[in-house]
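Deviations from the work plan: none for this task. Representative record:
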Amino acid sequence: MNLLSEPVGLAHYLVVGAFLFVCGIVCMTIKRNAVGVLMGIELVLNGANLNFVAFGSWVLRDEGAASIGLDGQLLALFVIVLAAAEAAVALAIALNYYRTHATVDVDQGDELKG
Amino acid sequence: MDLDRLLPILLSVAWLLPLASFALILFAGPRMGKGGRLSAYVATGAIGAGMVLSLVALVAWLIEHPIGTGEHGAGHTIEPITGELYTLAQFGSLEINLSYYIDALTVAMFAMVTLVATCIHVYSFGYVHEELHEVTDPLVTTSDGQRLKRRGRFPRFFQYMSLFCFSMLGLVIAGNLAMVFVFWELVGICSYLLIGFWHERRSASNAANKAFIVNRVGDFGMLVGLMAIWGGLGTFAFGDSRGPNNQMIQQGIFSQVDLIKDIYGYGDAPDPAAAEARIAQQFPLWHAQGLGYWLLVIAGLGIFCGCVGKSAQFPLHVWLPDAMEGPTPVSALIHAATMVAAGVYLVGRFFSVFTPEVLLLIAVVGCITLLIAATIALCATDIKRVLAYSTVSQLGYMMLALGVGGWVAGLFHLFTHAFFKALLFLCSGSVIHACGTNEMPQMGGLWKKMPWTAGTMLIGCLAISGAGVPLLIGLSGYYSKDAILAQLFSFASWTPAGAWLFYVAAGGAAMTAFYMFRLWFMTFVGQPRDHHLYEHAHESPKVMYVPLVVLAVFAVIAGWTIPGTNLGIEGLLEQARPQGTAGGALGGLLMPGVTLPAESLSHEHEIHVPVTLTAFGVALAGFLLAGALYWWRWFDPARIARAMSPVYWFLRNKWWFDEAYQFLFVRPALRIAQWAAAVDRNVIDWLADNLARSVQLVSVFDDWIDRTFVDGLVNGIAAWTYWAGLGLRTVQTGRLRQYVMLVAVGTVALFVIVSFLRMYAFAAP
């Protein structure tokens, strides 16, 4: 199955979601800036959101395949709210981190290493 | 107020007041004034109030039931007042309760006991005043060679005396056999506590134990009697229990027994088969046991066995002389006037339950007792022991009288004896108080020093000897002893084979006069034998000799009957006479040859006159012999003792009863105990020791297992966890990005592994 020759369907959305997810992971892994890491987290969450929405869509549904329906949209909304809350908390942590370490480099915060 | 309601209230209050006093002194005794001085007032107040109530009850009784002026001994029985105070427990048809049974005997006993007890309480003020302070006991040496010093026990003495008064009155008022048994044991424990009042003295604690153990032997028989009565009659109550309309609910012991005796028809040549048939019909319980008449015999023997123990009859008389180790007021109250008379009282109370065969046994036992005790008293030198043996002997007289059908005579002697023997004991206490010794050979000439004691004791001696002007007037003992001898004489004239009972009793009367006046002469007249002791002797304080005078008055008048009437103790007792003993003669079912004559027959002129003259003659002979030996000194007693040395030593050693019992019972019991102790030490201890040792071995092994395996497992897990943690801490680098990397790589690795597993390991075939 060649995705490029197919009309846009569920699989394409999943590919975009996976791409977003991997971007987020990579961003979290290589960024030393705490705010950058937070942005990576946002990417991961939105990649997952895309999957939820795609699975819940009536339009993209394959013939005969089950859909999770409105549950997908609801979970996406839930993740968005969660992301907002997480961003508020994480940014507060980042601010405090900056206040104590005078930097936002996450590699400097290794006081709890084993 | 109705007598049926008034008397139970009066007597119950008189009965319970000493209990209140006991409880009060028990909890507050040592704090009552200096050394507990007030406890004496509490106890005396309680028994004194009891005396007033009892005398009121007596007067009320006499007003309601005036003593008839008719022929002496005609006997009309008054229905006793019975009722129930409190039900303790009910087991099926067996009801254990506190109940009362009040007849003339109860009322008279209450008056006598409270009167004597009050006198003795007052006397005790003086006698035990030493116990108010710290006491140095000259007879007890502690392990460091010092004389024992201890706290005074003044309150304790009065506490026990109150408990005793309560128990004794409870025994008298008791309306059922179970209650009698309870109070029977209570007076026993009081006796035990008071004999052992100076329990540091080995002799006192031994005597207390002896009294208690010997009484146990008798009480065993009593329990058998209790069971026999319960098994045969199905009730413990004395009187009938009636409903509100006088209908019968449950027949008491006495009326059932009377009915049984009627059916068997004593003396009328009964037809045994017909009698058994009627019994079977009317007493299903009785006959179901298949014992019939024998059950009544067993019940009587059992009850009498308890009385033998309590009243110190042969062969259980050995405890009473030793009981003289207690304080003298105790000897007077418990071991002379009241508790030891309780056995006689119970025989009197249960008179109708005893079959003629049992009565005959009672008479024989009483006769043997009176002879043995009187002979021992002849040679005793301890002033209190003479009185103790005299008590045993007089109790024998009472039993003898009851046994030959002299119901009033026996109980009459109980009353007169209570007064004069309490008096004699208190006098001896006064002498001991003054001299500090019990040994009569060290006394002598004391009447100048202590005239009150000497005078009252002389009255006591005259009373117990039965002094009087024959056929005219006399002291209390004259009447009661004459009544007993007359009944014996009458019995002998009906049953010639029983004449020896009369001769022994008459001889006993001579011996009584001899040993009592021997005691009096040795103590009060002649030259002082120990001058140091004589110098220190002094009359007792007023608080001690006033009770003596009161008791002396009663010792004189207790036997009197107001001329022209029957108003006197004898007439009062006549009202309580058990049914069926007033007229005619009783013959036994098993021994047709024996006839117990009715008591009224002994008042006939041809019996009364010779008996009175005989009694007077033998008593006078005893008195003259005592005077010849110990007053006028015509003969030297020591020479006579030497001349008759085998007899003398036989009597000095009290017929070797103690030695015989030592050999027959005490020594074997000790031997068995030693053997048991050896078994205990060698076998049971060995077993226990070895068991312990093996348990110890097992536990050592167990400990090793515990330490090696169980601890090893736990410690091993802990160590392993520790090393794992040490290893894992290196992973914990603190680098956030590395963590994310690891999570991502780990997830991918998991995915890959799962995919491979799916593909190869779990692939569908």
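Strands of chain B lie at 81-91, 94-102, 135-141, 147-150, 241-242, 248-250, 468-469, 473-474, 585-587, 595-597.
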